Amino acid sequence: MSTVPSLACADRAGIERSAYRKIDLRIAAVLFGCFVLSFIDRVNVSYAHLQMRQDIGLSDEQYGFAVGLLFFSYVLFEVPSNLAMARIGARKTLSRIMILWGIVSTLTMAVQTPTHLYIARLALGAAEAGFFPGALLFFTYWYPAKRRARVIGFFALAVPVSGFIGGPISGWILHAMNDVGGMHAWRWLFLIEGLPSIVVGVLLYCFLTERPADARWLNATERALVVEALAAEQRGKGNDAASHRFGAALRTPRLYVAALAYTAVPWVANVITYWSPSILKQAGAGNALDVGLLLTIPYTIGAIGMLLICRSSDLRLERRWHWAASGTLAALSLLALPLAMHDLMLTVVVFAFMTIGFLGIAALFFTIPLAYLSGTAAAGGLALISALGQLMGSFAPMTIGHIKQSTGSVTGGLYVVAGVVLIAVLVVLFLIPARVLHERR
């Protein structure tokens, strides 16, 4: 029986808006800021690479290998981290992750050889493991399905915002901090951008609320409304054991089909986050500061496009075709990029379309498995899907780096990534039927 007081429709809608405004500020906005820091610390190596390659003797193939190593350790610890979060709570788990990755990112300033960089990237992957799927799981404690694409889309907005903020800051550090205090600028970059994560990680432990029932910053009616909405959604998923227990979920093929489809996300992400500075430099960008400023353009356009896609998906409660359209746009942009690299602004335009497609598939993807997983199956399943997808995605930077080292061009690597994305689109459309998504208006 519902614990929500009998309310007129207008009153209920007003209370619901008030409740989710507060939740957006106290939950979504806070984790958004954390994810911005995470992505800055993960991809600032793409800017540091512009200078550090000479200092530590790093080839393009070694750079691609170092980038990919992060995902191997990330995969090893992702599922255990999420299962632990289901037991010990989000505050301890997410704050621990932030503090550890901040420490590792900061210490990356000390690398002297490619081997040192390999170790640093492995350590960063182990430290970061579990943050993204842990945040997604945490959102399911607060948001019902009809609000989920938009909140995950807002969360994914951290990727372009990290580029919008991190690109110019990283470019400025590389431009202005060289030999300050006798230290090369790329070392300052890791130090300056790593320390905020440590501080925010400590604050996060003090600030997060575990569940709506514990939220004293909601009034009693707001708490009851949110709790009831989430309970109704759980009832709508029925009694399918695979949707609730992790062990049973492991035996369902759709978990691995989802992981196969998710491979597209890290493959496109690697092009945008780790290779775009080098590609823009090759297309005619000037110094590192120019590269960072130019990259704010596709990130801004991509963010707007992604929010519109997520809004449309939530309004229609349709996930598969929105995801497929986004993936197709990303693949077509990858195919077009080699044709555009003779012109700097045309390259930026193609990156903008690619970023719309990438952010669309990144934001929408987990609304699909979340529609049929719950309980410990959601905790472990989300992490397993992310881990397997990231594991397969770890070969993207290695593939692109090897092809560039062998041919002197990234073109072949871009074509391979486009092929992976198109295969993922077909997997979602043909192997994940709409009927398994138990979403309700």
Automatic annotation (TrEMBL):
- Main location as per UniProt: membrane
Q: Which residues cross the membrane?
A: 25-43, 63-81, 93-112, 118-139, 151-174, 186-208, 255-276, 288-309, 321-340, 346-366, 378-400, 412-432
Q: Span of the secretion signal? A: none
Annotated compartments: Membrane
Classify the protein's membrane topology as the record does: Multi-pass membrane protein
Gene Ontology molecular-function annotations:
transmembrane transporter activity
Please tell me one Gene Ontology term that the record gives under cellular component: membrane
| SUPFAM superfamilies referenced in this protein's UniProt entry, alphabetically | MFS general substrate transporter
Cite the Major facilitator superfamily (MFS) profile domain residue spans from the record: 27-436
Which CDD domains does the entry link to?
MFS_ExuT_GudP_like
Q: Which UniProt keywords apply?
A: Membrane, Transmembrane, Transmembrane helix, Transport
Q: What is this protein called?
A: MFS transporter, ACS family, phthalate transporter
User: What is the originating organism of this protein?
Assistant: Chitinasiproducens palmae
